[in-house]
Amino acid sequence: MTHPIIKGGSLMLDWHEWLSSPAGSYLLQWEQAQLDNMVADIFGYHAVQLGMPELEALRTNRMPHQWLASSELEPASETKPSNFAAHSVALPFQADSLDLLVMPHTLELSLDAHISLREAQRVLVPEGHLVITGLNPTSLWGWRHKRAQWYQKWGYEGLSAPPCEEMIGYWRLRDWLRLLGFEVRVSQFGCWRPALEKAKWFQRWAWMDRVGAQWWPILGGAYVIVAVKKVHGGRILGARWKTQRAQSKAAIGVAQRHIKASGDNSLQRKNECESR
Asked: pTM to 2 decimals?
């Protein structure tokens, strides 16, 4: 019996349906712009985008081998079919084999975000890049998501919000990455306007994106993180007996020169005394 990485097929269907809403479409546009800028100058040979075929996360990247992997419960995309299906908790790659891994909202939809991150750390080469997009719980989007969960418990289904079980905070994710040996190079926030259902009201709050970027940047509804896998290099030490032998030889040579010099001085003084 197999255990899917996603909570259920209905969650994935709800997620892709929400992406067609005004807030979801705006999120895709913002993330596409950020990814185009962030992955353009990442070099290597092998790159993988894990999930969300609505995004073309690798279109500006120049690596020769690029793949789009989808979850087994993710609906098939007619416009951009995936190359293969994969579990984020068990990626079908050898250790140290990928130069770039893009995980758009993979952690929020994964059964275990910690295991998914450990898998990302395993398959990336040293100095490999990991790009993660996520929703910020410390934002208007996070507050709306929390309200929607409360309403569902009370039997009210009328509030539209991103259909994920839990949003992972930015600082919390940074701590996880640091413990796994990653170094965060770039982080960007966006989507400060509230995630309203109607396009008319959603556009009326567009001024908050301009103000939020300046006054409360860390309270954006979405974020993108670029992290680099760091591996501490080892220093090769030679055999100690070789160093000790070399030092002992040097000490013997110095002692011999000193004895020879002392003998020459004694002989010279003896000759001087005999001549007198």
From this structure: 0.78
